[in-house]
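Suppose you are handed a protein chain with no further information: no name, no annotation, nothing but its sequence. What can you learn? This example shows the usual starting point.
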Amino acid sequence: MARSVSRRQSSSGPRVVVVGAGAFGGWTAHELARRGARVVLIDAWGPGNARASSGGETRVMRATYGTRSTYTRMAKRALALWQQYETRWQRRFFHKTGAMWLFGEGTRAQASAAFARASADALRAEGLPFEELTAVEARRRFSQVSFDAVSSVLIEHEAGYLLARRACEQVVDRATAEGAEYRQASAASPVRIDGASLQSLRLTDGTTLRADAFVFACGPWLGAIFPDVVGARITPTRQEVYYFGTPAGDARFLEAQLPVWIDYGQQLVYGIPGNANRGFKVADDTAGARFDPTNGQREATKAGVTRARAFIARRFPALATAPVIGSEVCQYEASPDSNYVIDRHPGAPNVWIVGGGSGHGFKMGPAIGELVTSLVFGESQPDPLFGFARFGPTTRSGKNDREKWT
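A reasonable first move is to predict its three-dimensional structure. Written in structure tokens, the prediction is:
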């Protein structure tokens, strides 16, 4: 797909280099260019590529976050922006299916119930419609689902799924239409900052890019680029995703008859029906092993397939013998508390580090693009929730005890 510089390129706005054309970087470049910045956006393999955390076909769009009401508000804003740009661009990326949370019994019942109550409070406060069902009521509505060991169900009506790879490509194309320049290039790492600010960025081909400000939104590579500041504070983990084939002509597992679902039981497993005709998507949110996003092998494991099939047989009995028609290995780039990292580099006020999507960041792309642009333009200050100070003294290593969802 060809990308070029638009005639709308500003000659007076600040010069900004954005590294990474995924959900965070692409939307940031778009918003910066839209507001008059002179933007160069670079990515090593292209927007939505298979190594990126923003790659793949689909991502969940939801605002259910338990006590983390900041994310509920951010998701509400992000959804409004997704819909706004869909109308403006005449392209569809958001599929409104609703999202059905299944809250389980057993050892995690107390945490599951607390998450459900807090989520309902946050959704209500933001005016986002939802309904709460008993397992018996949910079984009557969705007979293709087994609600065994489910204590309650919450359905968020404005939720659904997004077309991930296609959206990344479109956002970069629209960024160039707004005046940004896109380059297929890779930043040399680590990035060394000598002095009070970063003056230029060296690329692996030996060239340099000069700018007034730099935004690094390069997901699982942030730790390698800034080993002294980020290090293991953002940890890439290996995540397997599976696609099961539904029976021929059976519409029960398409989005018209089944919403996006999230099973909050002993583990947190989620799925997307229909899924852009790729098959019935199933993924375990449990953080996997540390992963090399550049050279790691992206082949599904037999053990992972076995676990996914056992879950499917229990929760969707009609798919117990469904074939696996596809799989992929992606990665989370997880922070210790699952909160994003959106902050200045502590040694360079013109460098912004944006990452830590932790498996739930894609949907927030347009809202994060707005936020980062306001920071670069000096219109707002970093939110401590996303700041480096919360980690304490910077370290190059350390265990990542990811706090999941709650």
